[in-house]
Amino acid sequence: MSSNSSARGIEMLVRVLEGAPYSVVAKEFGMGHSAVEKRVKAVERRLRHLIGVTGADAEEPLNIHQMRALRQEYLNAIDAFRNTQVVEKKIRRQITDEDLARAAELTHRYSNCPTRDTALLYTVFATGAKPIEIARLRVRDYLTADDVPIEEEPRHVGGRVRGVVHVSQR
Q1: H or E segment at 114?
Q2: What gap in Å lies between CA 46 and CA 111, rounded to an integer?
Q3: Dihedral sign of CA atoms 7, 8, 10, 15 in order
Q4: pLDDT means per 10 residues in the chain (170 residues)?
Q5: Cα separation of 24 and 84, whole Å?
Q6: Rounded Cα distance, 17 and 62, in Å
Q7: What phi and psi values does residue 81 have, to the nearest 5 degrees?
Q8: Second label for 58, Cα 20 to 30 Å away, from 36, 110, 154, 156?
Q9: C-alpha 11: how far from its chain's center?
Q10: What interhelical angle do 3-17 and 33-50 show, nearest 10?
Q11: How remote is the C-alpha of 120 from its chain's centroid?
């Protein structure tokens, strides 16, 4: 994130912490509601991971009410972020089974449709398919009319071949 982009994101976070709804902040910054929400959550997550926010677990996502309850702690973290040279390093590592289980647990806990979203998460990791490719899957792509799994790999977006892993015999 560039420093200008980061500064705007921090300004948005401060406005939201002050109690302004996302829609009001969106109008102030000439952006859409969803774009502001995503930017605020991204900045909030960076603060928790890089600086730390007292009272907030670095791994657990927080909703807006929880963030506002920790308003002063966030403002302290923002000041610390502005006053230090934070060096972000992208650490590339393989995702472990524990990481995937944790992601599934968090997805199940915080999703409005936990079963569907957890299944989608596992499908993305099991097949390597993009969400749009999964959305375009049809039953005929992986089952015959007799409910027998198709052994050949289905074709998806852009003609790329993506395999479907059949774990259940049902």
Answers
A1: helix 114-127
A2: 21
A3: positive
A4: 72 93 92 91 86 79 87 90 68 80 91 89 81 77 73 56 52
A5: 30
A6: 13
A7: -65, -45
A8: 36
A9: 21
A10: 100
A11: 13
